[in-house]
Design a protein that fits this description.
Layout: H1 30-50, H2 60-79, H3 87-98, E1 102-112, E2 117-126, E3 133-140, E4 146-153
Antiparallel strand pairs: 1-2, 2-3, 3-4
Helix pairs in contact: 1-2
Amino acid sequence: MEDGEVRDELPEDLDRGFVGAYKFPDNKRRRVTGFLYLLISGVVGFWAISLSGTPVLVNSGLKVGCCVLALFGLYSLVAGKPFGLDESAALVAANQAVGFPVGHASAQLGWRGLLSRPTWRMLVYSAEDPPLSRGLVLVDGIDGSIVEMYVEENPEDWIRTTGLQPDGEGPPDV
């Protein structure tokens, strides 16, 4: 295969033709699995207690498994707090925090801490061409507070994207 023939695209069986903005799944979906874990552990636990005279069907491993599943169900309920803001609102919070007008930006959703608190990681560049500053801002996904922020001058050597030389006349010298 020649270099000119290589295309960066999804195979046909994976391409579903979706066009539009991607909506991040909400963290509150964890609550559904938490309720299911609690229900299953409760039903199996009740069954194990009612058959406690039959050691072939019920042993200590089954009882411990029910307890572990119930604890994980409780954890899923506690960790399943719904989002307080989407990526657009997180970008607004990051824009207010960095102190310069934001041009290009990128959002990534991550989780932090023992309770998996959702956190937006916003990589922002200033609106100049080429950008003079850049920053990384961590925005809490539930209450919108700024968790951490790092801003610096842009150390990258970029060419102007306007197609003009720095003096504004003609195409850039390459």
